[in-house]
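Thought: the user wants the 3D structure for the chain below. I'll pass the sequence to the structure tool as-is, report back what it returns, then summarize two notable features.
Action: structure_tool
Action Input:
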Amino acid sequence: MTETYGRLRRIWGFAALGGLAQSLAGAAGGLLAQELGGTDLVAGIPATMLTLGAAGMAVLLSWITRRWGRLPALRLGCVAAAVGCAIVVAGGLPGVLAGSLLIGAGNAAVMLSRYAAADLRPTVARARSIASVMVMITVGAVIGPNLLAPSAAVAGLIGASGLVGGYVVAGVVFVGAAAMLGRAPRLPTRSVDLPSTPAGRLPSTVGLAVVVLGVANLVMVAVMTMAPLHLTHGGTGLVAVGLVVSLHIAGMFAPAVVSGRITERLGPRRAALVALILLVLACGWAALAGADPLPLGGAMVVLGIGWNLATVAGSDLLTAGVPAAERPRREGLGELGMGLAAAFGGAGSGVVMHLFGYPTLAWLGAGLPAVLLAVLITASHTFWKSTIEEHDHVREPDESRPADPAVRRAAAGPGAGTAGPPHRP
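Observation:
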């Protein structure tokens, strides 16, 4: 148990350092692009490139995980991000754009680390393990943007723009995160030999989890991205705008432990339904709030909480009770779905805001999870049907408590406890 918690603490450290590096680079990206390009039109491109890079690299890192294990994949993601930071420092505006793609690898590795933590704990505690990593990401993400000013001194040493110093510091921190994981033993990959999925097919739970994760990310990004602009159009000062954004970020990550316990208590499916309801309520609230920072700030907090619960529940549903060999494939699909949804939400929100205004954008944000909620409730018989792989309390073979009876029967044949095809008579 002590060894397991030692490994878990290293993953927490990795998540905190990675969260710091990615938030620092993200905060500097738009400002540096605007400074180098001389126009606001290019300010949002680094964030888009970073999001697309994270989506694509999540698939590659998941493939590496299947071949060589989690730690090499997570280390590679951070090293690639450090290289991306170096490209930004040396490459001017084209370097900012190209480097942001590679920095996306670090973002993908940081988010995938929640599954590494889940592998270290009994399956009954998977949701809490996932949530604990999200809390540590928060710690780093809150610190990161506050290092923009101190890092300017680093840029002065190399004769570069002050904003470039943020990338120098971020690159060093990414390397530090990779080094921290490098000292940890290889993470265990054993699992109960549950019936595997036929080649080329994925069970319905994968599609459901990816849809929940994607919808939550799309709605959160779209509605939140335009909130500061909506407030400034209404005459709100930058101090109040910054407070609203900070409250939203707190709502996104601070409740992670509570979300983990809710997911364990209700199960990931019911927790996902609760998350969708929160997203609908938050977006409806934002549509009715006007440009007053107090009510809109409350809506942003609820939006963050809904996203947090959807991410924890969707991640748990995606991988709970699944053989270790199959988890990385699912994890990559989940991160790809979240990344593409975020890119679409960020790009589309500006168009909707320009043409129809923020209330319409918020109502559209409410409509998407409402439609998904209606579909899931209508298909309740299929939605609530239990399968072997969805038992929330499956434990590893070496756990002291017995596994679910259905899982024990599945693991009773020859080859139980090893990854491979199910036994056939």
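Final Answer: Structure generated. The domain at 191-425 is CATH 1.20.1250.20 (Growth Hormone; Chain: A;). Residues 62 and 331 are 7 Å apart (CA to CA).
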